[in-house]
Structures are given as C-alpha cells and as structure tokens.
C-alpha cells in the first residue's frame, strides 16, 4: 500500500467508525458486531502507526488517552455555567411557576420541557470548525478546568461534529427526527464555533464492575458512581479516565443557531452527533410536569444510571432569557428533586473523631445498608446536642436518608426496637491522652492541646494540602497516611523535600504516579500569601480572615511579629481571634515549622493589593443571598479592588449589607443594628 492508498483507507476507516459510533451512542442502533467494530479500529490504529503523518485530532484512536498531564489549565467560560435551585414537593414546584408567571406577565403563555437530572458531572464542550477544541469543568461557574484530553476518551463525545447535511437523504433524517422539516431551517450549516453542555456520568453496570475489581484486588469500594465519574474526569493521566468507561449526555446548546425552544436544542444536539436523554417530555402545564415527575420516580430504579430528580425548564428560549438569573441559578429552570430515599439499619457503634482545631465529632457506625443505590456505613452525629435530640444509642434501629443523594443522615430512632440494656452515649472524658473540655457557651467538646494529638496532626496535614490552601493534586488523606506511616513525612514541610525515589517503591505507587505527585508538590512552592496563612490551620482563621491578614501585613515576617494590639485593629478580628493568631506565631513548635517550610523552598508571595482605586477605602461590606449579574466571589473581588473590606458577619462596624435574592438571618440583624441595606442595583451603582 502506497501513501496515497493509505491516506484514502485511513479516511474511509475513520468515516465508517464514526458512523457506527453515531448509530450506537446516539440512535441506539447497531449494524455490526462489537468484534467487527474492534477489527476496524485495530486496522486504523495499525495504519496510523505506519503512516503517523495522517493522524488527525478527530481520529477514533485518539480516545485511548495520551501522556499524563502536569496539571489542569484554567478555562474562562464565555457564558456562566449556572447551577439550579431545588424543589422537593408539588407545592414548591407550583410556587416556582407562580413566581415566573408573575415575572413573565399575565398575557404570557408558558410551556415547559422536562428531562432527567442525571447524577453526574457538568462539562462544557467547545467545537471549532467541527473539531473538539476544549472540554472544561463547571468550576465556580465562571472559570473551570481544561479536561479536554480526559473527555476525548469518552466514546459518546464526538471528536468531530456529525454533519446532518451529509446524511444520505432527508428521508433518512425524517425517519429519525420527525421534526427535521422545521429544524432544517435552523441547521443550515455547522457554525465555526459551537458550545454544547452536558453531563458526564457512570452507569450502574460499570460502577458495579469497577467495585468488583476493587474487591478482587483487596482495595476499598468506591462510594457512588457520581464521585468516581467526577474523580475520573480530574485524573492527570487520561489513560485512567479511559479505563473508567464514562458516558456523556448533552442537555444544552449554548451557541445561538436560531433555535426557539429548549426542546429544539435536544434535537439539534442529536443531529450534531450527541446522545440526549430519551426520557424527556414537552409539558403544556404544571399538571403534565407532575405526571412526568411521578412516572420517572416510579421508573427510577430500572434506569441504567442514577438520577436525583427531573429538570424542568421554560421551553421558549426568549422567555427563559428574559426571566434572567437569581444568584447562580436561572429563574426559568428548576431541579424537581425526588424525596430523599430512606432505609432502616442499626447503629453498631458510636466513635469520636477529632478535627484540626481539636473539636470532637461523634460518628455513628452503621450496619452497611444500600440507600439510593449506594452503600452507607456511617453518619455524622454532629455534637452532643444532636445526640440528645435524637436520643440515639448503640444498638438502636434507625432510619437514615441521603439528603440530596449524598450525605448520610439519621432522621429518626425506632425506640420500640431498642435493646433492653442500651445505654445513653456520653462524650469521653479523655481523648488522645488529654482531658476533654467544653467551653462556656459552646456546643462543641474539644481537647485543650490539639498540637499534641497524632490524629489532629493528620487532620492538619489534610487541611494544609486542601483546595483552598496549597491545593496539591494527588495528595489525598490515604497518601498522606502512608507517607506518615513510612516515616517519609513528619509534617507538611517534609513533602517539599520528597524525591520520586522516596515514594515510587511504595505499594500502589507506579513510577509515573510518583513522578506526577512530586511535580504537583514542587509546582506549589510559590504560593499566594492568603492561601499560605489559611494553610497554617490557625484556630478561627478562615479564608476571609486570611485575606484580611495578608492585606494588612503584606509579608509573613510582619504577620509573625504582630502585636496583639495591632491585630485587634483589623476589622472583624476581635480579641479571641487576635490572641489565637498571636499565640500561634509565638509557639516554638510553629516557629520551627515555618522555618522548615521556608528552608524547603516554600515562598509565600508578598501580598499585592490589586486595587484600581480607593473609592471604597475603609468601607466594610457583608453579603447575604444570591446575586444575578455576578458571583459572590466576583462581588468580593470588585469591593477589594476599590479598597473596600469584606466581612462574614454583621456588626456595628458594617457599613453596607448587600441583600440579594433569598437573604438569610444577616438581613434581620442588619436591620436591628441600623446597618445600611442595599440591593444589587444600588451596589453596582456604588461600584
């Protein structure tokens, strides 16, 4: 075979393989066997190896996963990726309809489109000139992470858009899509740039297969399909993602193609080669929405994937856009959730865990039980007040639920089934070799010297590498535990001196994963000053306080030498917090830890005020409720850029309370204290 023949054969193979991908993943049809399709793919791969110059980005062979990535780049979304507000009852869905009808006007006719809310992971896909250019996560709604190489491994995501205009005939299209006659007026061409959004998920079948393999390898089972799907998308090695057999469902076309309804967007997505949800329904009114919701609730257990409700959206795009956004959610759509599924099990034990600040949390260890398709074996009991409220004891039979299909929660104790000799639970008098104390006015029980507790040491280690601190990808609790057990890391400072050879010999650490972890650690040596302060785990110092400290002191040296009086002059830092900060930096143990970090090459960057003016200098704001035109983080950044200050709590020092949609208790407190309350419109005018 010469080069021209190879080029032609490769082109034909790609077209044939993509045709069968479209049939299988979009139309649920299969013309040839899996073995035959595998044979076609093998021939293509063999030819591409022999003639690599003919490999293109949309080749089906590109799905196997390339080299591991050093990290994920940030991607700014052209339009915000919004989340949805929830409704849990017929009354709440009716209230939602009343609100949007009031906003729409009495003369506006409203119809709806309802579809399944798959328990997955939201992804945005950008196509340029028909080729998949970028795939990104939701992130904070404005900025996500570039996970293109991982998403390419998912077979139901087309690498090249399917061109409906190249189908054999309009008759063939009309056979599949009855609405083609109207759609062909919209889809006259493939746009230069197209954005499609949808959900990455894992089927129940694949999830069960993976857990069987985990069990066979004597490894712990994964919690649920959504968690493993989300984790798979954020793997630095695309080959790991490819092995997880993920799927993709499209639910939205962001690019304006002239589509008039959300229903049309589903049809257009299918024309372009995307799988959409078959169980979807046009609904004329609220009665039809309720009927569809009840139908899906009944069929829920038989579906091949997990769902936690139905998404209901105003069908007309023009009206949907006019209704706008409240906070991070569109007014014209809502997640109509199913009631949290419940199960009955027994409390086998109640154990106590300790957090990084020394606070003790009781946890119920349960006889494992399946709730919403997920095995649950523990539930937090929060504190002694919650235990007394429930009157829960070891041996009790309890009703548990997974609120929002995620968090296990004990909702009731069946006391008629209680063992005769059961005893009420009490907090231990000693923990980690220390006397347990409860400060006056506090619900929490704690140990007075958390720094002397090994368990707290681990919790602080976990906190140090967490997302809002050093954010070290690949360094989770299990890896940290192993490093500590093997004597490779006594504290977080030690990780910055690790070499590949130190961790590669450890069980379950391949040479490549060791290299990736070391690269991830080394990349975080230079760190923003507020993140560095937050990572230290100083009691009472959260993200906002860390920013305030960084802004006031600018450098680590200035903060470390700060006097109590100066700390107390900073807004929102009272006597208790100021003393906690001063005492932390006066500790010889902590002083040695800081020195160890700096000696290992960690460089907290001098804090630079990115202020574009001083218009709001000395003005303190508090936010409550959701904003329509910006996220809370964007609002905070805008205030700081003009020299203003943010606070998490309302006090007499607060100048303005910005009240968005659905404000919380801060609004009432602001009214009592006489704080000036402004809405979003006035806030933007102030900026």
At the fourth level of CATH, the homologous superfamily of the domain at 86-337 is DNA ligase/mRNA capping enzyme
Q: Total strand count, please?
A: 27
* Major sheet details: 6 strands, antiparallel
Helix coverage percent: 25-40%
Per DSSP, what share of the residues sits in E-state strands of 2 or more residues? 15-25%
Describe the model.
The chain has 687 residues and is an alpha+beta fold. Among the domains are: 3-64, Helix Hairpins; 86-337, DNA ligase/mRNA capping enzyme (D-amino Acid Aminotransferase, Chain A, domain 1, 2-Layer Sandwich); 342-435, OB fold (Dihydrolipoamide Acetyltransferase, E2P) (Beta Barrel), CATH 2.40.50; 620-686, BRCT domain (Rossmann fold), CATH 3.40.50. Helices cover 36% and strands 21% of the residues. The strands form eight sheets. Strands 14, 15, 16, 17, 18 and 21 form a six-stranded antiparallel β-sheet that branches. Strands 2-13-10-3-9 form a five-stranded mixed β-sheet. Strands 5-4-7-8 form a four-stranded antiparallel β-sheet. The chain is globular. The protein starts with a helix and ends with a helix. The model has no long low-confidence stretch (mean pLDDT 84).
